[in-house]
């Protein structure tokens, strides 16, 4: 009886490992299919860490930095779904920054680059890549100021190609 117990136990354990790997793969495939089908990812950033770093001449000047790492919520602005991490460089005094950041979400990350306007006007940023379920994505992201006061929150609306 002992002769059969060890091989049967090993076979059962192996079957469980194969099943777990298959389910993980299936879950990733389902997430990827959802991204493929939806083509739009909408999240809301809470801009709580944005800090201007005065680099050049005193005051607002070309080259100043705007680093940040903020929480990101679902489109309804109810549940935290990730975070972002990035930096902007002042390019036009009193008007615009050029920004690059990564939004970290369940299943992967999306990286963008483009303008941020002091006026709060919407801007379009290029999606430069992604990881995980967002691997090889491209497209554009609309940045829209919102919140109270306006600019304390931002809609990130990723239109994936």
TrEMBL record:
UniProt keyword terms in alphabetical order: Isomerase, Signal, Transit peptide
EC number: 5.3.99.6
Gene3D superfamilies: Allene oxide cyclase-like
Enzyme type, top EC level: isomerase
Catalyzed reactions per annotation: (9Z,13S,15Z)-12,13-epoxyoctadeca-9,11,15-trienoate = (9S,13S,15Z)-12-oxophyto-10,15-dienoate
Record's signal peptide: 1-27
Family designation: Belongs to the allene oxide cyclase family.
Protein name: allene-oxide cyclase
Lineage: Bacteria, Bacillati, Chloroflexota, Ktedonobacteria, Ktedonobacterales
């Amino acid at each position: 009886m002992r002769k059969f117990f060890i091989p049967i136990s090993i076979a059962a354990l192996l079957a469980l490992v194969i099943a777990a790997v298959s389910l993980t793969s299936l879950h990733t495939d389902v997430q990827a299919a959802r991204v493929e089908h939806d083509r739009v990812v909408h999240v809301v950033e809470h801009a709580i860490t944005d800090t201007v770093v005065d680099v050049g001449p005193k005051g607002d000047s070309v080259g100043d930095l705007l680093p940040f790492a903020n929480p990101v919520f679902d489109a309804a602005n109810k549940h935290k779904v990730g975070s972002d991490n990035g930096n902007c460089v002042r390019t036009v005094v009193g008007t615009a920054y050029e920004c690059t950041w990564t939004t970290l979400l369940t299943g992967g990350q999306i990286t963008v680059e483009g303008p941020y306007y002091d006026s709060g006007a919407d801007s379009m940023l290029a999606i430069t890549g992604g990881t995980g379920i967002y691997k090889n994505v491209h497209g554009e992201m609309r940045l829209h100021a919102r919140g109270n006061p306006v600019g304390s929150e931002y809609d990130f609306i990723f239109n994936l190609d």
